[in-house]
Amino acid sequence: MTVNQPARMGNAFLTKSVRAADGRLEWYNWLGEEKGRPLEILRPTDRNELCNIVRDADTDGVPVRAFGAGHSFNALPTTDGYAIDTSELNALLEVDIPNARVRVEGGIRLGELVLLLDMLDLALPTVGGILEQSLAGAIATGTHGSGLGLGSMSSYVIGLDIVDATGQLRHLSARGNDPVAFDAARVGLGAIGIVYAVTLQLERAFNLRTTASVTTLERTLGDQRYRKEALSHRHYQFLWSPYGATVVTLPHDYAGERNAVSPVQSLQRDRSRRP
Fold it and tell me: Is the dihedral of CA 179, 184, 188, 194 positive or negative?
């Protein structure tokens, strides 16, 4: 059995593909619970390569599915046709600092995106708890963070560049010619096309103030206190260990914009600290 190089972020292996005894590839998701048997795993490095792969597959009548980190707990990314690994589609394409917007390729991992935005003094309004996910995968599956007043990650998407089933690149937006298709594609589960690039509406980088408290489960759930707390904070979490009565509450509140440091200033500061 031959093991191919898996996609990974840092030291965390996210997906795995192996060569089975019959010669076919077998692709496994992050937890190894879902398996596909693709003809090939293809890794486009730019928009043209992605379009050409889909166009050729359409001509040959071969089904195509794309995957990012393989974090989905279901069979969405599995295929017996061409599997497209989007991990090389991770570039920052456009930056609009005054309007706090960026356009970025959909294969970028959330952890990489957060660090990149931080250098630009920008931030996602909210993010899920798994930073190894790809951006396109996170929005396509409705990933969300905490905060009743905040939407899912898909709600901060204002534009999508999608490769359709014929290999054509389509731009979708709320103000475009097909806002219904745009809404469908934002949490499209891969059914509308392959997301090549995403335009995001962001916020200025900000600080959060967190106050941790220890209380009881009865007090947290009683009189729906958890809901009242969630409504009064930007983010609210409570952590409970089963078979215990102790709860740790974690409200997070906006504490103002972070002191802006330009990428150039940051680079100069880092260089000045070097021996």
Answer: negative
